[in-house]
Amino acid sequence: MLFSTIFAHYGYYINIATVCIEREIDIIAEKLWIEIVSTGNCVAWVGSGLSDGCYVKIPALIDYLIEKCEPKNYENLLKQEKYFEIAELCKNNNEELYKNCLADKYGFIAPLNRPEYNNLVSTKFQSFVTTNFDPLLAEACDNHDLTVHYLPIIESKYIVLKRSFYIHGLALVNDTPTAENLVLATSEFETAYNRDGGPTWQFVLNLLTEHNLLFMGCALTEPEINECFNAMIRIQAYRKEKYHEGAIDRNRIILLPNLILNGMTDEEIEHANDRQAYEKSRFENSLNISIIRYPRKNRDDKHIALMLILRKLRVYSQSSMPRITGESVEVS
Questions:
Q1: Same domain assignment for residues 87 and 229
Q2: How far is CA 220 from each of CA 5, 111, 120, 237, 255, rounded to the nearest angstrom?
Q3: Are residues 85 and 26 in the same domain?
Q4: In CA terms, which of 7, 24, 132, 207 is 20 to 30 Å from 234?
Q5: How many domains does the chain fold into?
Q6: CB-based contact 51:220 (threshold 8 Å)
Q7: DSSP secondary structure letters along 176-219
Q8: Are residues 283 and 306 in the same domain?
Q9: Cα-based torsion angle of the residue sequence 119, 58, 132, 211 in order, rounded to the nearest 10 degrees
Q10: Last residue of a domain, one of 74, 91, 109
Q11: What is the spatial distance between Cα 176 and Cα 178, in angstroms, rounded to a whole number?
């Protein structure tokens, strides 16, 4: 059956009607369901990709903070894209205004309809974790009577109870915009990821060590999160050495868009291949995460296939086990 879906989430219509893309999405969704989601012990890690188009991205946020807070000596940091350091300068220059800016940009329910969040929380995930500030995941959880935890109180013991966790804070609490516990500036990361009791450090380390994970809509570029991965790898190595039989190796998968598209120039294809090779090295070799790439019809639909995968996983969760096609999905 020809799959044809119209999306209007971004103010324009996107029509995915290509059989090969439809089939690839089917195979990916079945593979994820069979290998990791259907067990009920997989945690979904959600990044800003699922809120794409609803809230400002970090570079635009930093420009806004610079305009409002007027920090000094930020130019070199901006050239190096050291956004957290610039946020720290803005916070130090005018903390009240800094917090007001964050609350203004993220402390509201986006007017665009985002069914992917309802699909996500209706799926057989064990729990949901996000680094986002925006309340879209929290709203979907509220609609399904799921408890929402956010900084400063997040405890890993509740992961098994199907709840959501805002590990970098939530910008809308009890219908009130707030930036009181958001993690953006370097000092805020230092507090949250302090190895001697930092709530996010303890939570993420336990999550990586003890749970299966599916990452979506994220790049995991925060240095502190990468340090958690390094600590997890050290813990695994210690367990394997101490117990000889080896520790249970958790299943960690990240969904990333295919960067190579029809119609690209040779130079663009070379650049895309280099980027995908870098991602393979970083995620698989450094962070011990397997990559599954989902298709794109064009440059603009970066996350459309991801939304369709979530919808299929929701359908699988509410029905019987899908058939096994016997076809494989390339894990690059």
A1: no
A2: 30, 27, 20, 22, 12
A3: no
A4: 132
A5: 2
A6: no
A7: EE--TT---SHHHHHHHT-TTT-HHHHHHHHHHHHSEEEEES--
A8: yes
A9: 90
A10: 109
A11: 6
Is residue 78 one of the residues assigned to a domain?
yes
Q: Which domain holds residue 303?
A: 5-53+111-317
Element (H, E) at 317: helix 304-317
Record the pTM.
Answer: 0.88
Looking at every residue in the chain, the average pLDDT score rounds to: 88
What CA–CA distances, in Å, run from 173 to 102, 148, 253?
13, 10, 31
Phi-psi region of 217 (alpha: psi -120 to 50; beta: other; left: phi over 0): left
Contacts of 205 (CB under 8 A, 6+ apart): 228, 231, 232, 235
Residue 93 pLDDT exceeds 50: yes
pLDDT digits (tens, 9 = 90+) for 271-329: 999 999 999 999 998 898 999 999 987 776 767 888 899 999 999 998 855 554 444 44
Residue 154: phi and psi, rounded to 5, are -135, 125
What is the arithmetic mean of pLDDT over 219-247? 84
Q: Based on the domain organization, do 65 and 174 belong to the same domain?
A: no
Phi, then psi, of 119 in degrees rounded to 5: -60, -40
Taking residue 217's Cβ as centre, other Cβ atoms within 10 Å add up to 25
What's the whole-number mean pLDDT along residues 197-226? 94
Residues 225 and 262 in one domain: yes
Q: Are residues 121 and 260 in the same domain?
A: yes
* Same domain as 155, residue 85: no
Residues 174 and 150: beta-carbon distance below 8 Å: no
Q: Per mean pLDDT, which range of 67-81, 98-112, 160-174, 302-316 is the poorest? A: 302-316
| DSSP symbol at 172 | E
What is the pLDDT at residue 19? 62
In a domain, 90, yes or no: yes
Q: Is the peptide bond before 152 cis (omega within 30 degrees of 0)?
A: yes
